[in-house]
Amino acid sequence: MFAVFKTGGKQYRVIADDVLEVAKVKGEPGEIVEFGEVLVVGGDSLTLGAPTVPGATVAAEVLKQARGPKVIAFKKRRRKNSRRKIGHRQEFTLLRITEILTDGKKPSKEAPPKRARAAPASEQASGAAAVSTGSEDNATARKAKAPEKGKQKASAKEKKPAKPAKGKKK
What we know:
10 strands, alpha+beta, single chain, elongated
């Protein structure tokens, strides 16, 4: 199921678990915010709003409040010794869409639990052991190759003829 909703003068097409940046919205990280201005709800059947879909809302969890990259506004009037430099950082809210609701339903008040990405400790330890043995093999291979490279560089230097000294002539 997808929805198109409007906030901050822009429209966003979203599905559940999407992460997106929108213009700053009130809310602390971890809070659930609702967007009631839903223009389209789609899935098995498409519902177009005129101008909005009645009873449809999009619920999202606030991940963080942040500021975008600095944009420099530099203005110069040539030959007039006049210039102006101003920087601006736009504030935005990072959201994760939790639910797309229809028929006037209310969103669940708590955010869904975060997915566990890390592997269990026993698998991490065995993986670390495999990595360490591989790195030891790589280190010995590098040491074996290092003298060969040095010999090649020395032979390359011997091939070059000596440059005559500049300035004084004998």
